[in-house]
Amino acid sequence: MKFTIQKDRLVESVQDVLKAVSSRTTIPILTGIKIVASDDGVSFTGSDSDISIESFIPKEEGDKEIVTIEQPGSIVLQARFFSEIVKKLPMATVEIEVQNQYLTIIRSGKAEFNLNGLDADEYPHLPQIEEHHAIQIPTDLLKNLIRQTVFAVSTSETRPILTGVNWKVEQSELLCTATDSHRLALRKAKLDIPEDRSYNVVIPGKSLTELSKILDDNQELVDIVITETQVLFKAKNVLFFSRLLDGNYPDTTSLIPQDSKTEIIVNTKEFLQAIDRASLLAREGRNNVVKLSAKPAESIEISSNSPEIGKVVEAIAADQIEGEELNISFSPKYMLDALKVLEGAEIRVSFTGAMRPFLIRTPNDETIVQLILPVRTY
Amino acid sequence: MKFTIQKDRLVESVQDVLKAVSSRTTIPILTGIKIVASDDGVSFTGSDSDISIESFIPKEEGDKEIVTIEQPGSIVLQARFFSEIVKKLPMATVEIEVQNQYLTIIRSGKAEFNLNGLDADEYPHLPQIEEHHAIQIPTDLLKNLIRQTVFAVSTSETRPILTGVNWKVEQSELLCTATDSHRLALRKAKLDIPEDRSYNVVIPGKSLTELSKILDDNQELVDIVITETQVLFKAKNVLFFSRLLDGNYPDTTSLIPQDSKTEIIVNTKEFLQAIDRASLLAREGRNNVVKLSAKPAESIEISSNSPEIGKVVEAIAADQIEGEELNISFSPKYMLDALKVLEGAEIRVSFTGAMRPFLIRTPNDETIVQLILPVRTY
């Protein structure tokens, strides 16, 4: 194998596939990055067996030559060293050559690295996925779907299924749901596929987070292929494979209250900042809660009390307070997480009493719902 | 105590004095910040008993009113909460009022915090320092003196005296020396004081690092008052006290070779980057060294070898190679540390053989010297 490649493109591809490489793997060769040079270009692969990422650099793009292949071939190089080395190379082009016994030479300017490589034939194969049925979602929408749900997955392995996001496709609509059983995030999106195609899978939260990091912010379509055990995201020159979680995702539809007893509409930023301030003292208390008191036609008050340190209270101007008077306590972290992913200047919060889950939405937008379970303090 | 203050100035002062506050103190009141409102303005004090910082906000600056004092007084507030609270207050002004039993109200807009304070009379007094003899150094020079030496102090408590920087004043010259016994940094500066005034003290490295962080980059003079046990740095509106280290600093003058057998002059940036690249593989090896080979009238080669991973070799263009041929090994970290604080496009390295300490300097600048002990590998 021997080729010359643009350094900036090499660095970018290596950084992308590096996101799948774990140093804590039990399969030694997976601490490496597989490099395959063919007549069309060079591909890089990283994997921790849960997630696999392949990045392809074509020989040419438009009129620009990016890679010059002198001899096709393949090698596996230690990911940690290879990625740090390419970042620090002195010149704009890099020559990579495999010699005898997998010894690999990396040359750039006067710097010459010799790395001991491994046989690429020993590297596990990527999952084989047949793709007659792909879902297409624009990259920026996909990144939003992920951002607005993935933060709510469980971080505990007690119920492994809750560490993933449930993707359910029915009636040409995608429904993404994440919950850690204390709060729930739900996001819908219309899909341009036949009504009779349906899926119901759980994608690990970690996979979605890593996927989001390597996707650029643009409107190009990402092809998504879902099988029984794997999902494949195909963006421009990048393939992202993730295994799916085993098991049935709990039915969460019954959790979401259909009516409400108290409704408030407030300025998102003011509300978020008041919660943030109240959380400064909440953190210290054993309960770690802030309290919200709403008196219809009067005012909303956010407060928190930590006997040893002190207390904080703040009145919030509400655009609307309707229904019953309410005193409710909740985790400020969950509220801040939810507010941060809601778009729009105003938010609507719908309560059904101090002991029942409540909903946070943007007025007039039914595609995204955030739900939080209150904390019993009264 | 009751006063109203500009939020941005309050935040700045609190952040400055916070640098002296440690959460691991054995004196509970030192986890707090002391606030004293007088007719002239408000002062804030933080201390971990090694370092004490006082920041003063005057009532007025030029024509601008910064503080309105309604009632003088004093209080101690928990540093961690107070500093986070003031950062997150909603409006540009903040009212702070002490009520009964040290209960302190912090108001800004509609947000109101109640913090349990402590009696300011219980707060330890700052060291009393008589200041008939101050040294004056421009802030930017002082920051350079610190930056170019403090990185070389020892981080081990085996020889506590080496965790500080030796400041020696003689013949109107300040000599700052730091060493961890593997490398040494030395910086000189002319002072505008009488020739017969002399000092020889050791300032803890940590104190100098924190001092540097709170000094702005400007040319205003800092007054430095040195006593037997304390040093006081007086910048505009900030007093910075540090205890001195007990004991005698070792005499390091004999360490510095007076002649050399091999001299090289190289481009600083090229040399630094080559060392940085070589260090990528050096880290892995047990020795953690890079090797430099100089052949007079020919070339310089930087290399490193880590049998399991691979090796790297790079030729460097030298502006000058004089004297004997040389092969020497050293820690790339020490070399990078030294190169980062040297100013100028070129550096001169003077060797006296593979087993002897070598010097790194900027050509034609005798005010700064970096010394490194080589590692025996041949």
Which terms summarize this structure?
homodimer; 378 residues; alpha+beta; DNA Polymerase III, Chain A, domain 2; Proliferating Cell Nuclear Antigen; 9-stranded antiparallel beta sheet; 8-stranded antiparallel beta sheet; 6 helices; 17% helix; elongated
Short account of what is shown:
Two copies of one chain form a homodimer. Chain A is an alpha+beta fold.
Please identify the structural class of chain A as seen in this structure. Answer: alpha+beta
CATH class of the largest domain in chain A: Alpha Beta
Radius of gyration of chain A: 25 Å
Low-pLDDT stretches of chain A are none
How are the strands of the biggest sheet of chain A laid out side by side?
Answer: 16-13-14-15-28-27-26-20-24
Beta strand % of chain A: 35-45%
Q: Quick one: which chains have the greatest interface?
A: A-B, 32 and 32 residues
Multimeric state of these chains?
A: homodimer
* Backbone shape of chain A: elongated
Q: Would you identify the CATH architecture of the largest domain in chain A?
A: Roll
> Looking at CATH, which topology of the largest domain in chain A would you report?
DNA Polymerase III, Chain A, domain 2
CATH superfamily of the largest domain in chain A: DNA Polymerase III, subunit A, domain 2
Largest sheet of chain A: 9 strands, antiparallel
What number is the mean pLDDT of chain A? 94
Number of DSSP-assigned strands of chain A? 28
| Alpha plus pi helix count of chain A | 6
Helix content of chain A: 10-25%
Quickly count the domains of chain A. 3
